[in-house]
Amino acid sequence: MFEKKEYIVNSNLGICIVEKITKLVVGRESQMEYYVLRSATDKNKKAYIPVEHHETVLRHPMTETQAKEMIEKMPINTNDREGDRQITLGEAKEWLDCAEPEKWAKAAVLFLLHGEEYDAQLKETLCKIWENFQGELAYVLKKNKEEVRRMMENRIK
């Protein structure tokens, strides 16, 4: 269970804070506990996620060491390899939903290198993953999103 004021990663919001844990009425009489999550990157975005039996992924953010290692593992000169551009919309949605940092990193690379080559839906999904990943890296590394973008772009070009 996560605690109030704890930063976590949500597969839909990216990095967010547990604003509170509250009970909401479900059905006529039963109550369920919900996390009230607020996006750390967009204060207007909020989500209510059941504490138990939620379908969205909730996890602790990467550590600083993990984030640095993730960036170091970024592929270099991937635009030379045609196979690296292949991804389906279904795969991208699975990567978004699973919230695994390694898959988010790969999606970020695809978006940054080849985003303009994909159809609108695929591009939108990869962009969402990139935004979530970028927000998590910015939080963990204590940098702003623009600094993270430059770090990633310098690493993959």
Describe this entry's structure for a reader.
The protein is α+β, with helices and mostly antiparallel strands and 157 residues long. The chain contains five helices and five strands. Strands 4-3-2-1-5 form a five-stranded antiparallel β-sheet. A hairpin with a 3-residue loop joins strand 1 and strand 2. The longest helix has 22 residues.
Topology:
Layout (H helix, E strand, L loop, with lengths): L6 E4 L3 E13 L3 E10 L6 E5 L7 E2 L4 H9 L16 H10 L2 H14 L5 H22 L3 H12 L1
Q: Reading side by side through the largest sheet, how are the strands ordered?
A: 4-3-2-1-5
Oligomer: single chain
Backbone structural class: alpha+beta
Largest sheet: 5 strands, antiparallel
Strand content: 15-25%
Uncertain residue ranges: 79-83
CA-based shape: globular
Question: Which bin fits the share of residues in helices?
Answer: 40-55%
Instruction: Find the count of extended strands (DSSP E, 2+ residues).
Output: 5
Structure summary:
This protein is α+β, with helices and mostly antiparallel strands and 157 residues long. The chain has helices at residues 64-72, 89-98, 101-114, 120-141, 145-156, and strands spanning 7-10, 14-26, 30-39, 46-50, 58-59.
